[in-house]
Amino acid sequence: MRIKHEIYNKILFSAKPSPYESGGFLFGKTDLVNKVVFDSKNSHLGKYTPDTNLLNEYITAHRERNTDFLGIYHTHYPSNKFLSAVDIKYIEKIFESVGDYYKTLYFPIVILHEGMFIYKAQYINSNAIITSEDLTII
User: Fold this and answer.
1) Helix, strand or coil for residue 80?
2) Nearest-10 Cα torsion for 16, 85, 99, 53
């Protein structure tokens, strides 16, 4: 995944200290993130649940601007740079709903003072295939 430097910094500086998790939505073109929408409504102790109404509003608005929905990021506790079992189930659930339209989405984990860890999910043969991926800051 590639990300604009200013977007990367916005995301890192918006991360709340643990134990709270927060997140947001990534938009851009192909694999280049050039827009972030912060989703602060559903920031909870140890859990982040995306506001799907907000997400759907932004997907519609960005589609009209020829910008793609690229994924959802969220924060984790320090040193916990891996997707949890709950995260993976949620990704699978997303693809069950939108897999015909979105074949690739990104699910970065952000850790305050540590950085961003990228997970790429691809919908192949009705399955979510999740791999880690390098991050390129532009």
Assistant:
1) coil
2) -40
Q: Which of 71, 133, 56 is nearest to 104 (CA)?
A: 71
Eight-state DSSP code of residue 41? E
Ordered per-residue pLDDT tens for the chain, 138 residues: 999 999 999 999 887 776 678 899 999 999 999 999 998 776 666 778 888 888 888 888 888 888 899 999 999 888 889 999 999 999 999 998 887 889 999 999 999 889 999 999 999 999 999 999 999 999
Structure tokens at 91: 């990704």
CB 129 within 8 A of CB 138: no
User: Which of helix, strand or coil describes residue 37?
Assistant: strand
Q: What is the DSSP string of 82-129?
A: S--HHHHHHHHHHHHHHTTT-SEEE--EEETTTEEEEEEEEEETTEEE
